[in-house]
Amino acid sequence: MMQTQVYYLKSICSQSVFCRRLANQLKGILRVLPAITCGLLFMLLLGVMGCDTPEKALKSTDINYKKAKAISWYNKKEYYKCIPVFEELIGLMKGRQSTEDLYYMYANANYQQGDYMISAYHFKNFYDLYPNSEKAEECLFMYAKSYERLSPKPSLDQSYTLKALDAFQLFLNAFPNGHYTSEVNVAVTGMRKKLETKALNAAELYYRTSNYKAAATCYINILKQFPDISEGEFVTLMIIKSNYEYAKNSIPVRKSDRFEHVIKSYGDFKEKFGQSKFLAEAAGYEHDAHYMAALSAFEWAEVCNLEDRENNFNIFFREAKDNLPAITDKKQNDQITQMIEKGYFLIIKSNFQASEEKKKEQKLPFLEKTVKTYYNFVDKYPKSRFSKEAEKMFNISTELIKKIKGNG
Question: Which residues, 6 or more positions from 79, have their beta carbon under 8 angstroms from its beta carbon?
């Protein structure tokens, strides 16, 4: 008899999802209970089978019955039951009578059920359809809250966070002094913090993977997007560090200019955070950048094309003049000073070597430059360690000029 009861119960319960679940649970129970108890339970379940279900309500042609059951389930927080019935009722009643209350309950039921994409759409649609409703403010707020619920942790894509912020801004524009303003401000602060964390993590990843240009750009953008960020001092320090590492790893021709960016970044930092705990660390990068800016300019001038060297050594002289006062390390200061002397000598040598590479009729301009730059050199450094070599090139150039002009 027990097997017959179970089979019959399962047959009846197949009428609804709810009943099928119940039958599966009772199947095990019936096997272990005494026959008399099973019989009583069987009769009880038959009574349950006569209860109302979403399927029964959907099949009914009585709109009032459908409404009563859907509202009843809503009030009991049985949202999975009322949602399909509300959905049908809104369609059936459209144009015949107001569905404002039902539509509100339908949107909220989806929210309570965790279907936030659906609730976001319907809360916003409710506000658009019933802007004068007493529930309009709440629905616009819940529209934003739905997107807030969809906002993931900082490591993931923040599209829903941005949508939530836009939705909360829409709410504040519509209800600047509304009931939910304080909650909105708290939510906005939390989501902006999430975006800040996302941006900081991205910049840190670029820095850790030696993509220093991207790191510097990210940190700069963080300050633009979040000017009031609590980590402002740290972010500004990281701009200096990223620019420094980027400059240090750049090709020779770009190094000097990029170390100048480090110096400028430090100036911005000191102006904003003159009492910062990071000031000493930032100053270390700035001091080194002054030395590296001058050194890099010299190194590039030394290896560039012969015909470009005089111009590039002049750039080095300007860099040295600008940065020497800030190079407080005596060894570094002496090194740059010696490089200035060597630079003036190398201009002579570069012009002389360029003349050697030219054909006879093209030698003259470079030989004349050799002579001219020699005079400039000996005026500045009459007792230079490079004097003998410079004088030798001067003498050769003078003789060659005479020969070329004499033949002319």
Answer: 73, 109, 110, 112, 113
Asked whether the CA dihedral 103, 106, 111, 114 is positive or negative, the reply is: negative
CATH number of 340-408: 1.20.58.80
- What residues contact 220, with CB distance under 8 A and at least 6 apart? 239
Q: How crowded is the C-beta side of 166, counted as CA atoms within 13 Å? A: 9
Nearest residue to 326 via CA among 373, 367, 291, 377:
291
Tens of pLDDT, residues 223-278: 999 999 999 999 999 999 999 999 999 999 999 999 999 999 999 999 999 999 99
* Rounded-to-integer distance, Cα 343 and Cα 310, Å: 9
Residue 88 identity: E
In whole angstroms, give the CA distance from residue 262 to residue 239. Answer: 8
Q: Which region among 29-43, 187-201, 332-346, 393-407 has the lowest average model confidence (pLDDT)?
A: 29-43
Contact indicator for 132, 148 with CB cutoff of 8 Å: no
How many C-beta neighbours within 10 Å does residue 345 have? 21
Of the candidates 252, 250, 341, 329, the one whose C-alpha atom is nearest the C-alpha of residue 295 is 252
- Tokens 């539509």 sit on residue: 103
Question: Hey, how many other C-beta atoms are within 10 angstroms of the C-beta on 341?
Answer: 15
Nearest to 280 by CA among 212, 233, 228, 246: 233
133's tokens? 């409703």
**Cβ contact 339:298 at 8 Å:** yes
List the chain domain ranges.
2-51, 340-408
Determine contact, residues 239/232, Cβ cutoff 8 Å. Answer: no
Distance CA 299, CA 166 (A): 52
Distance CA 303, CA 300 (A): 5
For 157, phi then psi, to 5°, come to -60, 135
Helices (H), 229-359: 232-248, 252-272, 279-303, 306-323, 330-357
CB 349 within 8 A of CB 366: no
**Is 233 in contact with 268 (CB distance < 8 Å)?**
no
Cβ neighbours of residue 188 under 8 Å, at least 6 residues apart? 165, 168
60-92 as b/e, with b when 16 or more CB fall inside 10 Å? eeeeeebbebbbebbeeeebebbbebbbbbeee
